[in-house]
Amino acid sequence: MHDETTTAPQARALRLGVAGPVGTGKSSVIATICRHLRDEFALGVITNDIYTDEDARFLKSEGVLPEERIRAVETGSCPHTAIRDDVTMNLMAVEDMERDFAPLDIVLVESGGDNLTATFSPALVDAQLFVLDVAGGGDVARKGGPGISGADLLVINKIDLGPYVDVDVEQMVTDAEKARDGGPVLALSRKHPDTVEKLCDWVREMHKTYAGGGHIPVDPGPMAPHHHAHDDGHTHSHE
Ligand SMILES: Nc1nc2c(ncn2[C@@H]2O[C@H](COP(=O)(O)OP(=O)(O)OP(=O)(O)O)[C@@H](O)[C@H]2O)c(=O)[nH]1
């Protein structure tokens, strides 16, 4: 009988998206993954910024990978568009990277920083992390949204800051688990090596499942309707 929960073993790299609100630590999470796993896996990184290549420059300056394995996509539009509505620019960047450095094991794709609504299309990534931080407030996890509830892993970052911003990290994790119907939640700080190891283990496990054909990409769901106002007075909306 055909088993619909598995697919053939994968020939190409695992494409792993990292999304989340501005400043929660997406670039830092990617830097951490690269530093700890670069000797185990062949890695590449694609960053998304609206007008700059700042995130790519940060990762290059940190020396987390050889510079040519870190490439920037300047989306020129709201971050949702490039990771969800029309993923062409990103898909081309990922495919170029995979071709130039074949065979790659994992390509990390960082979304531009946005609000709680941005998620990757499963046409672009195979799995996705959504990153919140404790500095954004303990109640954020309760607010839900497609990334919080539907990403393959929810990261609650900067837990070392909990005491300074009066956030009960354990409660925030419990709230997040509830919002995700028990889906995985990782409390992370780059200053707590045990949490970094858990992040690496999650990536290892995801890669193993994916490479063996046992991972089916899940769409966390569409963003909520919203609109953007631009400097020139022009607005656009996503319904
Ligand atoms: N205390 C603490 N600070 C952290 C941690 N991770 C990241 N930061 C800091 O948080 C700030 C934002 O981190 P980034 O990695 O640039 O965040 P980002 O989500 O990529 O930001 P944008 O790309 O601008 O949306 C930086 O000053 C980091 O040094 C952490 O675990 N603990």
Automatic annotation (TrEMBL):
PANTHER family according to UniProt: UREASE ACCESSORY PROTEIN G (PTHR31715:SF0)
UniProt entry keywords in alphabetical sequence: Chaperone, Cytoplasm, GTP-binding, Nickel insertion, Nucleotide-binding
SUPFAM superfamilies, per the entry: P-loop containing nucleoside triphosphate hydrolases
Basic and acidic residues biased stretches: 229-239
Annotated GTP binding sites: G20, P21, V22, G23, T24, G25, K26, S27
Region feature (Disordered): 213-239
Superkingdom of this protein's organism: Bacteria
UniProt GO BP: urea catabolic process
Lineage: Bacteria, Pseudomonadati, Pseudomonadota, Alphaproteobacteria, Rhodobacterales
Main location: cytoplasm
Coiled-coil zones: none
Single GO term (MF): GTPase activity
Role this protein plays: Facilitates the functional incorporation of the urease nickel metallocenter. This process requires GTP hydrolysis, probably effectuated by UreG.
Domain annotation CobW/HypB/UreG nucleotide-binding: ranges: 17-185
Cited Pfam families: cobW
InterPro entries named in the record: CobW/HypB/UreG_nucleotide-bd, P-loop_NTPase, UreG
Gene, per the UniProt record: ureG
Assembly notes: Homodimer. UreD, UreF and UreG form a complex that acts as a GTP-hydrolysis-dependent molecular chaperone, activating the urease apoprotein by helping to assemble the nickel containing metallocenter of UreC. The UreE protein probably delivers the nickel.
Family statement drawn from the similarity comment of this UniProt entry: Belongs to the SIMIBI class G3E GTPase family. UreG subfamily.
Compartment(s) where it occurs, according to its Swiss-Prot or TrEMBL record: Cytoplasm
Keyword Chaperone applies: yes
Record's protein name: Urease accessory protein UreG
GO cellular component, one term: cytoplasm
NCBIfam families in alphabetical order: ureG (TIGR00101)
